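STRUCTURE:
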């Protein structure tokens, strides 16, 4: 036994122990009480025994009495001062309550791993600032000035803004200008960006412009870097925090503005464990700090547009690109008249034209791998995953069939397993096959493929981007990783392949997402002073979506979609929650949800509709069967009251241990 422990043990005889309430990262909805004979701040971390283990807990309150007797004692106080301020604690309480998620897990997801594991909260290596800042080289346009002034007017109040401007219209300049002003007032700025939108370019732009320290928070950092960034934000040393969704929980004592760039992007929603929307939470963060919020995008989500209609957000518009840059021409290629499966004759001709002009071209296809179908031309057989309800995708460089849902891989058959003929073929295109096909059309042109397979290694994405930014003529082939705000100044042509899947989808959000994607991808073309051109290949050229895309009238299209949602009472005109259950035995998950549905229906709150259970779109994934139960109401409070009551009575349902389930509030798919 070490000396410290002896001291503590003997102290116990003299001081009357008091009680603290803590949050512990376990999937339980309650908090826990411990004895603590030392002074400890609310918001500090302590090490406590929990079952057989020792865990890091956060102190929530001091108590005189507990409902439990035989309390265990705190083992160690990890922070002398509070790690989490009252503001952050309130924010985390709010989040846990709204998403009905265990408080301890919410706290855990808000802390970097090193702090979760009890390591000391000291900065290892201070991020230094590069001294070579340069001021803005041009005057803001009138629209930019108006937007900047509107936001600066409410620096001491909560006020939400939608900054809507096409890609290249100068939104980032607006962020930079407001940030500069706020930094002079010693305020901090938090900027959230999509998962793959956090490019070195964006970080560099802030570093070049602002005098303050800029820290980035994203998954590519190592744990020490993550901890340092977190602590520099917390001490106020960092003026700007640029991060992906979990950065919404970064403690910033002088927070003066929250920006969510590309607010429509799906990656702001966490899709596992604690399922939250960082975009939605940004409202609460800004409200608690009483500061402005900017949601920026060219293609606002329907939720955000409804908030504008309801006057919860003020819309600021940047209607054109500054200077010379003009919007690209968008044309359609009717694939019903084309024999080629992927690269139509007009598409290849346009690519040639732009390449001969020493420009870069980009082809966008939303599927990685070589080909999505491996099938027999003699019978109906087609390669499918044995563990999932999905086709296997052929990857040629490793000669494997891969399942993109569970990751399983196998060597392709050489004869058909069903009719034993040697008549197996691939059908359709992924990025890899497209790249191969392009090599035969353009043998002398550099082809850069960007998808999850080519960017898996650290820094691979940055290396690709560097190559593109050199401006040399090349063909860029990629998935939606390319749709995010990258500024390729010598890119003048964008070809979009295979959009028809989105037009045929059953998901009520599919057309909204497709319209956003098409506008975003088109926005890559012609960013400086070259006019861009966009070609979209489709077998449905008469679909109404294309009229709006061609004329860049996203807002008009969005209003027609919004009207449809109103007529059908779908979100954002109603609120949903999803209870998803899965099990290896198909019946168990469905049975569990049937019991849940019975329980929910007994709760006497009308206006909450319950649908299901229904099998998930892909019913079987990695040998587990997935079922969904939907709750929907036009009244958000009613919906949440039903969920709360459901949790209270949950123990009346006997859940088989083989059934895993979760609740998703405001699900997006
Ligand atoms: P967005 O964030 O909307 O895509 P950016 O802020 O990146 O747009 O601006 C696009 C390009 O236009 C950048 O190269 C930027 O430096 C330039 N730019 C922005 N505002 C102006 C302006 N007022 N005058 C001239 N150029 C501008
Ligand atoms: Zn066959
Ligand atoms: Zn699979």
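SEQUENCE:
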């Amino acid at each position: 036994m070490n000396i410290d422990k002896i001291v503590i043990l003997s102290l116990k005889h003299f001081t009357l122990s008091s009680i603290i309430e803590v949050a512990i990262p376990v999937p339980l909805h309650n908090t826990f009480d411990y004895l603590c004979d030392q002074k400890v701040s609310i918001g500090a971390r302590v090490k406590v025994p929990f079952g057989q283990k020792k865990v890091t807990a956060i102190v929530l309150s001091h108590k005189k009495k507990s409902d439990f007797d035989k309390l265990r004692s705190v083992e160690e106080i990890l922070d002398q001062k509070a790690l989490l301020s009252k503001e952050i604690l309130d924010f985390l309480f709010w989040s846990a309550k709204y998403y009905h998620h265990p408080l301890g897990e919410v706290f855990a997801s808000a802390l970097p791993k090193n702090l979760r594991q009890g390591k000391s909260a000291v900065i290892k290596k201070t991020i230094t600032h590069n001294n070579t800042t340069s001021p803005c080289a041009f005057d803001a346009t009138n629209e930019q000035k108006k937007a900047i002034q509107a936001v600066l007017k409410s620096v001491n109040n909560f006020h939400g803004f939608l900054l809507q401007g096409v890609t290249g219209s100068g939104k980032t300049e607006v962020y930079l200008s407001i940030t500069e002003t706020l930094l002079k007032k010693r305020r901090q700025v938090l900027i959230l960006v999509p998962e793959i939108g956090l490019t070195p370019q964006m970080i560099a732009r802030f570093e070049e412009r602002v005098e303050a320290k800029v820290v980035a928070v994203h998954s590519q950092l190592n744990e020490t870097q993550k901890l340092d960034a977190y602590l520099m934000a917390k001490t106020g040393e960092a003026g700007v925090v640029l991060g992906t969704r979990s950065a919404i929980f970064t403690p910033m004592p002088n927070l003066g503005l929250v920006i969510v760039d590309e607010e429509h992007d799906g990656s702001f929603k966490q899709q596992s464990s604690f399922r939250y929307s960082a975009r939605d939470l940004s409202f609460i963060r800004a409200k608690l700090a009483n500061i402005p919020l900017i949601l920026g995008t060219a293609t606002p989500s329907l939720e955000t547009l409804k908030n504008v209609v309801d006057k919860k957000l003020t819309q600021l518009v940047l209607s054109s690109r500054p200077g010379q840059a003009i919007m690209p021409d968008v044309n359609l290629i009717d694939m019903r008249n084309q024999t080629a499966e992927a690269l139509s004759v007009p598409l290849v001709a346009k690519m040639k034209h732009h390449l001969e002009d020493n420009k870069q071209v980009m082809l966008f296809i939303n599927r990685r791998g070589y080909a999505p179908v491996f099938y027999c031309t003699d019978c109906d057989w087609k390669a499918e995953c044995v563990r999932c309800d999905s086709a296997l995708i052929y990857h040629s460089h490793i000669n494997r069939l891969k399942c993109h849902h569970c990751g399983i891989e196998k060597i392709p058959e050489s004869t058909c397993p069903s009719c034993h003929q040697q008549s197996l073929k691939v059908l359709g295109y992924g990025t890899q096959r497209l790249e191969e096909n392009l090599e035969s059309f353009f043998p002398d042109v550099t082809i850069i493929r960007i998808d999850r397979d080519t960017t898996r290694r650290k820094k691979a994405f940055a290396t690709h981007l560097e190559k593109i930014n050199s401006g040399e003529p090349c063909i860029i082939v990629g998935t939606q990783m390319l749709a995010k705000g990258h500024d390729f100044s010598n890119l003048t042509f964008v070809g979009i392949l295979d959009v028809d899947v989105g037009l045929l989808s059953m998901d009520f959000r599919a057309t909204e997402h497709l319209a956003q994607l098409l506008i975003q991808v088109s926005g890559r073309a012609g960013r400086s002073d070259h006019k861009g051109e966009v070609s979209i290949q489709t077998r449905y050229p008469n679909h109404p979506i294309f009229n709006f895309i061609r004329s860049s009238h996203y807002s008009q299209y969005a209003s027609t979609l919004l009207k449809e949602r109103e007529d059908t009472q779908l979100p954002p005109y109603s609120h949903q929650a999803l209870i998803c259950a899965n099990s290896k035995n198909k019946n168990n998950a469905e049975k569990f949800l049937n019991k849940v549905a019975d329980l929910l229906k007994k709760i006497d709150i009308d206006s909450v509709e319950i649908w299901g259970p229904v099998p998930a779109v892909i019913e079987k994934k990695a040998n587990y069967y997935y079922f969904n139960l939907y709750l929907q109401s036009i009244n958000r409070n009613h919906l949440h009251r039903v969920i709360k009551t459901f949790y209270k009575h949950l123990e009346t349902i006997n859940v088989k241990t083989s059934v895993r389930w979760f609740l998703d509030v405001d699900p997006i798919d």
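REMARK: The two ends are 54 Å apart (CA to CA).
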